[in-house]
Each structure stands twice: as C-alpha cells, then as structure tokens.
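Troubleshooting log. The previous structure file for this entry was overwritten by mistake, so regenerating from the original sequence record. Sequence copied from the archived sheet and checked twice against the printout by T.R.
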Amino acid sequence: MNNGFMDSLIEQNPDAMIFADTEGTIRVWNLAAERIFGFTKEEAIGSNLDIIVPQNLRKAHWRGYEQAMQRGETKYVGKSLPTKSLHADGSVIYVELGFSIVLDSAKNVIGALSSARDITKRYKEERENRKRLAELENARR
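Regenerated output below.
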C-alpha cells in the first residue's frame, strides 16, 4: 500500500485519528480530530499529547503510555474506552478512545495510533438519566 492510500484512509475517517511518536509528540492529526478537539492540524502536529489530556489524568496517562512504548503492547488492543479529554476551548469533552501500538518494518515501536469518537452528548444524557432514576427511586421511599 502506498502512502496516498493510507493518508486517505486516515484523513477521511469519521473518527479522530491521532498518531503520536514514542515521546508523545503528535505527528498525524486528521480532519475529524480538528472537529472533535478543536485544534487545527497546524496547532496539533508537533505538540505533546497533553493538549488533549486533562491535567488530573496526565500522570496516569503518561505512566500507561510509557509502559506501552517500552513493552510494545497494550492491554487495550481491540477495545475502546470512554475517557475525559480536553477541547481547544478548555472545556472537558468525553471520547471513546481506541489505542494501537505502531511498529516499523523491523518490529520496533515507533508510536501509537489512537482513534477517538466524541461521546459527550451521550455521556451527559446517560448521566442525566441516572440522576432522574435515582430521584425517582428516592421519591418512592
């Protein structure tokens, strides 16, 4: 497969596609990432992943990221996890995040590819529904 093919797959994906090298520097940022996180490609590429990781989650994020880069594997392969993230305007958003280790042709770790889908609306609706259900249960007592 040529680079043009891969570039079009990444760029046209409806989910945010973010590739970061082993140091956590963003190297690929597609149009969906711009839409979801609010940073332009020019702002994001060359920046650290901290631009989208909330301050209170950074220590755990980097511990897991460094372990994945050292081991060349992650326990999250094939899974998507809901998590908090940051938008360029400073607001907290919720995303469903998938994570894959990327290897070069010699099987050396060169970084990680993440896919993210904005679930903020769904998350808030579910939280509101849980709140209403708790209120109804308390009213019955």
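The domain at 3-140 is CATH 3.30.450.20 (Beta-Lactamase). Archived copy saved in two places this time.
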